[in-house]
């Protein structure tokens, strides 16, 4: 992480109580990757399925491969735990590309806005 850059995590439960919007801003490089994901786990420890978790990465300025692996590991753990997880990022952006290159999944669903991801029937912006 560059000097002066801070990873910010903001968690907001929607009014319907059916979903949680988690916005990450800043940079996730190797030194901060595990700290950031541990903070996500702590922030969501009291949340129970079948809650939809919208993980909004649209304000990330940089994402290292270690950060992508940590985020994908967090996502996999939450999905295995019975949650539905929706990613938000620029479909053509660097963050999405790093996630796709790091992901073991054949398809990675990414929504272009948090509003689209929060709509229950919204189709994803991209699908591989």
UniProtKB/TrEMBL annotation:
Residues 22-121 form the STAS domain. It holds the Pfam family STAS. InterPro entries: STAS_dom, STAS_dom_sf. SUPFAM superfamilies: SpoIIaa-like. Transmembrane segments: none annotated. It comes from the Bacteria. This is STAS domain-containing protein.
